[in-house]
Amino acid sequence: MSYSDITFKDKNRIKRWLQNQRLVSAIKLGIHTEQCPKVICDFGAGNGELCKLLLEHFPEARIICYEPAPQLLDEARDNLKGISNVEFFQQVCDVEMESVDLLFCLEVFEHLPLKETQEVIHEIENILTPEGRLIVGVPVEIGIPALYKGIFRMIRRYGAFDANIKNVLSSSIGYPPKNRPSGEIAPGFRFHFEHTGFDFRSLNKTLGNYFTILSITTSPFPKLGAWLMPEIYFTTQKR
Known about the structure:
Blueprint: H1 13-31, E1 39-43, H2 49-57, E2 62-66, H3 70-79, E3 86-89, E4 100-106, H4 114-127, E5 128-139, H5 143-157, H6 165-172, E6 183-186, E7 189-191, H7 200-208, E8 211-219, E9 231-238
Helix pairs in contact: 1-2, 5-6
């Protein structure tokens, strides 16, 4: 099953809408940055859907589609076939140092173990310009969002790590499980496939150690906050 099949083409209408809305919310944050970005990077681009929106809103910008997983990069190439101004990278070391003005990292950090999280942060630091902005989007997997997401997952695949009662309830009271299973999404690249167990509060502290956090908001309805909304965004600037 492709990435698109479980996200933007999911059989559930609400999930499809939320997947598209998280991209729209991220783009709005990018538009409201004070700079006029010449180079924009979608870091961990998945199937490249965000790059389509970036081209609509930043038609003069150079768009970098970076995706380390070969199968996802192939999906992105196919999804963006015939579209100019997009460059594809599988190795982040091939992206020029301090060349990116605006970087989006959506639905990535919730999948990364601690070691990979640190490595990705340093990679992002390296390719951002001195005044570069970073927009991070991750799911809210604690509190009420963890409860309604958990119920949805239990209906679909009861008993899985992210769809058993114990893990759902512990996440809903603010104590996500620590024993998250992991595998490899690319050779040598460990990855948590399930969102359950991720805590955005820890990521907030980690990002604050490396970047200046300019704003925190949620999607799809920002005024309702992380206590109810399924997605949270950190707009940050390189120090």
